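Bit of a strange request maybe. I'm writing a small parser for structure token strings and I need a real example to test against, not something I typed by hand. Could someone generate the tokens for this chain?
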Amino acid sequence: MGHPPDGSQLALFSASQREQAGKPELLGALADSAHACRACSLRAGCRSVVFGEGDPHARLLLVGEGPGQVEDEQARPFVGPAGQLLDRILLAAGFRREEVFITNVVMCRPPGNRVPLPEEVAACRPWLERKLAIIHPEIILCLGALALHTLVEPGLAVGRARGRWLQRDGSLVLATYHPAAVLRDPGKRRPVWEDFCLVRSRYLESARG
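Reply from user aminoacidic:
Good idea to test on real output. This should exercise your parser:
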């Protein structure tokens, strides 16, 4: 394979496969296909395809921008300085990293950690959409502007969107600042913590039914 799933998001699996296979099997098959993707030029300049990781049955899914150098080296999302901060925030908010799913808008590191170009986002978006379709989380947390623009509304500022719940294909969506932005501007620490508290409150409320 190696080509993104088509717009129907059904190209990789037949109807019977989708009925018979569980989420871990579907995600595993999708990851195998993603590692062969050459839909944009990013793959030629990076070491790894950083598909994402976490619980295939996660009720909370976090979407960032793209892998950095450390993520590219380890083939894991959010393991550099921003990822270490994210781990601390998750733990403080009552989440274990293993119980959520973490991914990015693009799976390959842009040169110099620049913001992914629109054509790179478009090439990788079918993979992201398929992950969302398989996991179908209750809550999606957009970490930064690119995730918000890709999944909700182009041009919508994080500062305007944060603090209010949005809807997307049956999932609740909340936006907050990217952990890297918090490292650059400690003044964003409190707003991010407030957003994670909102997520935790809704998460627990949903669990109680």
